[in-house]
Write a structure and sequence with these properties.
The chain is mainly α. The chain is built from eight helices and no strands. It has one domain (11-161).
């Protein structure tokens, strides 16, 4: 408990950004219209998907923004740690599970970001499929998610960095992609 005294406390803005990412990832349409499994893994993957979009947008914005984004990232993994403990994962297994989650985050970021940068919906849909639908591919849902992600990246690119650091994140409405032709 003493070591917690020396940890940097997250600011309200960092917390607000993280809450906005999680709130968007919890939109019911992702689990109904996009067929994302409403499981621990499915929810984790949607949070990662939205976090990757946010961190991608914040890259290259200078040291202050980089520190802020790092603090949001740290908050994300503190929350994952706390969630694992709440689910009853033993203290000795939590660090190993968090490490696996970190590797999953970076693997997904490495798959999503180049496809987003290239505006390659097909490559992005394939990456989404490998991560969200590993056992039962859903080609239409994957493509709709890919288009959602590309639109989200475009919307975020037009947002002021200062707004994004205050938790004023604009996301596309996932319901608008429900009947999108693929």
């Amino acid at each position: 408990m003493v070591f917690g005294l020396f940890r940097r406390r997250s600011t309200e803005a960092e917390h607000e950004v993280y809450c906005e990412i999680v709130a968007q990832a919890r939109q019911p349409e992702f689990y109904t219209d996009f067929l994302v499994p409403d499981t621990i893994d499915g929810r984790f993957d949607l949070i990662v998907l939205h976090a990757v979009l946010y961190f991608r947008r914040m890259r290259g914005e200078g040291a202050k923004v980089s520190q802020f984004a790092q603090a949001v990232f740290d908050l994300f993994f503190q929350d994952m740690d706390a969630s694992l403990r709440e689910m009853g994962v033993s203290d000795t297994r939590v660090p190993k599970k968090v490490k696996v989650m970190g590797e999953a985050f970076y693997g997904r970021a490495d798959a999503y970001i180049p496809a987003i940068d290239a505006a390659d919906a097909e490559a992005l849909a394939a990456a989404v499929g490998r991560n969200l639908f590993p056992d039962n591919p859903e080609p239409m849902a994957q493509m709709r998610l890919a288009r959602y992600m590309l639109d989200a990246a475009d919307i975020m690119s037009g947002q002021a960095t200062a707004d994004l650091m205050q938790g004023k994140l604009s996301w596309p409405n996932p319901a608008a992609y429900k009947d999108l032709p693929v």
